Amino acid sequence: MSYTAIILMFLLAQQSQLTDLPCSSCHTSDNWTPLASPLPFNHDQTLFPLRGRHTKAACIQCHGGTTVTERHRFSAAETECNSCHMDIHYSDFGEDCQRCHDTESWVMDNWWRKHDLTLFPLTGAHRLLPCGDCHGAQFSRITGNLTTDCYDCHTQTLAEVISTGDHTENTDCIFCHNTRAWSPVDMSHHDYLFPIYSGNHKGTWTSCEAECHIDPNDYSNFSCGLNGVCHEHNESQTNSEHDDVGNYVYESQACFNCHSSGGGGD
Amino acid sequence: MRARLVLTVIHQEVEVIKNSNIIWGFLFLFICAARGDTEPVTIRGRITYVTVDQIYTDLGSNAGVEIGDTLHVLRRQEEIGLIVVTNIARKSSVCSPLVPTDVFQLGDLVILEKILPSSASTEDVPETEQEKPATEIKIKPPRQITQSGNLTYRSTLSKFSSNRSDIRHIGTLQYGLTITRPIQIRVRIYGRTILPQNRFTFYQARVSVGERSNRLYLLAGRVFTAEMAGLGATDGFLLRTRMTSNTSIGILGGFQPEPGSLAFDTNIKKVGGYLHYQQKGKILQWEGSIAGVGQYAANKVDREFIYLRLLGRIGKRLRLALNQTIDLDRKDILSSRGLFESTSNQISLRYNPYKTIVLSTRYSSRRQVIHQVTQRVLPDSLFRDELRAGWYNSILFSHRRIGTFQLGLNIRGRESSLTESLMAVFQYHSSPTAKRYSYTFQTSYLDNLILRGIRGLVGVNRDFKMGSVYSEYEYYSYGFGKQIGKYTQHTITTGLFWRVYSKLQVSVNGEYSLDADANLFYLFLGATYRL
Prior knowledge:
The complex is a heterodimer of chains A (266) and B (531). Chain A is mainly α. Among the domains of chain A are: 22-77, no CATH class; 97-147, no CATH class; 203-258, no CATH class. Chain A contains 10 helices and no strands. In chain B, the strands form 3 sheets. Chain B has a 22-stranded antiparallel β-barrel. The longest helix of chain B has 17 residues, at 2-18.
């Protein structure tokens, strides 16, 4: 996105007016102080709704200043956590404290819930691991170079299975495994490559090797039913159906190139 | 009116000029005027009379006090309340208390701290007032040493269905010491111990001299500055100096910290400098900075980058933030990249069209950064959390009585992934009822290469005078690939948060999670004591 456009928009928007709050939002007609109780002003309508301990804080703790005028410039108050609170992590974990903490207390008593709101919810075996298994000793990898790629944590596991000679060097673990256990193999992600759990091929196969992956030692060698197992893909019928298709050849890779989603009309 | 105080000071200096060299006198005047916009002055007086709802003091306009000023009231060096000037005469003022008047007594000390403008000139003050000597003016904050911080203890028990269990006891200390005289010095330390090893480890320590608003501000120890965010923490120093009221520069130097201790690696050096500018008008407020940062290992360039940052606010409706990191690849180690490569960008906008509605949008993009010598791989120089990259949109509706609704949507694409990640969240927090009950409902949908799932949560919270209790139930239904609902996970949580008294807080939380073939019990006990 062009920064220039944003800055232009920013400058044009300067015509906006700052509307001060009416005095009655906080004060009574009897006297300036004490403030009205309960306060008529709804802080939830600002960019910083008050929750938890913030509801107990005195207004002046955030709306500071050396004069009454400055303290009444409410919109000047910062809304970032680190504008009031010291970040003991020195921003190593980012500036969004609410990812882990809440306004009730800095102590994290239900951190699991926070993880569920990330793109890597703790399911299956991951739910049962001590934090340090992924995040390192003393949480040195809360974020940093920690990614959602399986091999980022399972480097050793991958190296071990590759060394046996019975496993490919493919690092996309999720295409054959899930987060619950290494075995049994879970091919649920096959639909991202070729739909077999949905569409025309749902329920039409019995095992990986029986119909498609004719070479159990090389799963990249597949057949689109050209081995005679799938009756609708016999050569004469298929040739007849493709007599108007240029560069047509009766070959599995060519089938896949045009029919990657498994549909006849692709 | 503010100018008068400065001018009374200047007037005193004029008397000095008469008896010495004129040039030195002008120089002295210049220095005094220059100091005026940087040094807060403290005006001291006494309470002279107390009524049911008004406080009288001996500070008047001659002392530089104005209507609307807030005075601190102290007794035996302890602040006992604040009063606001409502009427003023030359030698006295009438004030309205911000706390009940019965705490105030005749003779209590009143203090006004003000930062004086530098543009004052003698023409602004009537001749009669120039001739009057100022009331006692001293730069003397009321307190000399203050302490802050907290001691925290937490104990967790995790018990898994596989009969594995994990018990931890952790104590942390966060401590701050502030000395305000003759210059402000702050010391901050943070450490923790994992019991029963009884080995206390300091994680963070730093000392600051001065304040950010001062002409000179020094940080030493484990330092971090938002103007050079991509560099992370550094064990070294940060020196910031304010060139004008709007402009400041800073330099940083030091070494790569070791995580989890105060040790650092002297083989990895960090240096950087930045220029910061800010302007705060009534309608438009903005600040921006540009930083050049370098990290060097074995006397070779490990990484060099430029970091740009812009924050702006228009009125109270619109808020904008821009961040950009541009890496310099001098040796072309990253073969696919040019000399200047934008490695991370973020733009966020918040718009508040009505009092009850807040619209937010944020776009983050980034590329992986590889350090050229240490070969460290950072997914990002600015947005360290990979899980938050992408395009995020949110709409929030908040009503005092109805509660707060929020709908958020995050979309993220990766070059290496077959599918985009999509996460949608809807949540509702009710306003507390008359019986102090409040309710929470959350639901989210996640679809990425790892799994596809729906999550729902309902919770109830009951506030009481000294804390709160809550209970929640969470349901997670998920599957792998393009499946959904193949597995379910149920979690029940209940907890108590109790402020035993103002300095001591205790929290207890129990959680039971049940999956198709595993379950987990988790107990948390925590206590925080504020120093």
